[in-house]
Amino acid sequence: MKEKTEVEWRKILSNDAWSINKLPTELRGALYLSYSQLPQNLKQCFLYCALYPEQWMMHRDVLVRLWIAESFIEKQENQPMEDTAEEYYYELIARNILLPDPNYFDQVECKMQDLLRQLAYHLSKEECFLGDPQSLEGETTSKLRRVSVVTDKGSVVLPILGSQQFRVRTLINFCDKSLKVVDLTFKRLPYARVLDLSGLSVQKIPHYIGSLIHLRLLDLSGTSIICLPDSIGSLKNLQVLNLQGCDALHCLPLGITQLCNLRHFGLDRTPITKVPNGIGNLKFLNDIEGFLVGGGSDNGTMQDGWKLEELDPLLQLRQLYMIKLERAAPCSTNSMLIDKKYLKLLHLRCTGRTDETYSEQDVSNIEKIF
């Protein structure tokens, strides 16, 4: 950060933040000043971190997707919103608001100092709640917008609010896999933008999910789902779909190719064997974790993986993680990645073999693909 002039230091000295007395004593003075000096967009990002439990390590890429889904990120000309969001992230680190984990050279993980987290939670307490949502029964929740589930109970139960309508836009969780989610949960969240059910005991996604027209982020990673309903194609505002580590999921529905605003698609560690043709139609897709390369089985609408040519229209790609590369046929064009000017990370993986080694022909084919 640049050095401040004497005039700027005098402005800080005369800032009203020093005289705020509606805060707990330990949150006043310099601590509140560090918040008041933030630009408005960074204030929103800072307050959002109050949804995380104390001392929880936050990952940069997860925060970036959440901030974008919440419309905290200003669009910049000729720059992906993910790059802008990363700038916000590193600015919060530069201001000592977020503390990076020293084990990562690129500061990809961080946490928030306890007092700053208390300040964030205090300032956002009307809109944010962290704990067991069932404890909100009988409380006034008209201003509540974000719920972070932390509970020892066996299931997620949203409160019965009588005549009040549950206007929560964000539901994220920090629970273990034994926690069950009842189907009714989806119907109780008609305004949801962010729905994070990662790691929970979810086996079925109801057809009703297609009615959540405001949904921008759906995280089902690590769940026990065996299929997705075709109605998922109705989620025209969906930007993030996480399906990593879903051990029982083998087929993707045709509706996936209708997610016209999808930006991040996570499939890594999920044993997908059937995918719909047409991933190249998702023009805003810029991050694919687990692009399954096809082996040639194709019935017109469903196939055993995607052809390399389907990457051609995806000009926004920033990160690409390809799996089963050994199945790829040589591309009909050599420009598959040449025009991907935003590409930062390219991960190419072949399937490990324990029973036999790759033949010379297989190796030659893989070299041609490279």
UniProtKB/TrEMBL annotation:
PANTHER family: DISEASE RESISTANCE PROTEIN RP, OS11G0673900 PROTEIN. One of its GO terms (biological process) is defense response to bacterium. Keywords: Plant defense, Repeat. SUPFAM superfamilies: L domain-like. This is NB-ARC domain-containing protein. InterPro entries: Disease_R_plants (IPR044974), LRR_dom_sf (IPR032675), LRR_R13L4/SHOC2-like (IPR055414), WH-like_DNA-bd_sf (IPR036388), WHD_DRP (IPR058922). The keyword Cell inner membrane does not apply. Residues 168-328 form the Disease resistance R13L4/SHOC-2-like LRR domain. Residues 51-120 form the Disease resistance protein winged helix domain. It comes from Arundo donax. Pfam families: LRR_14, WHD_DRP.
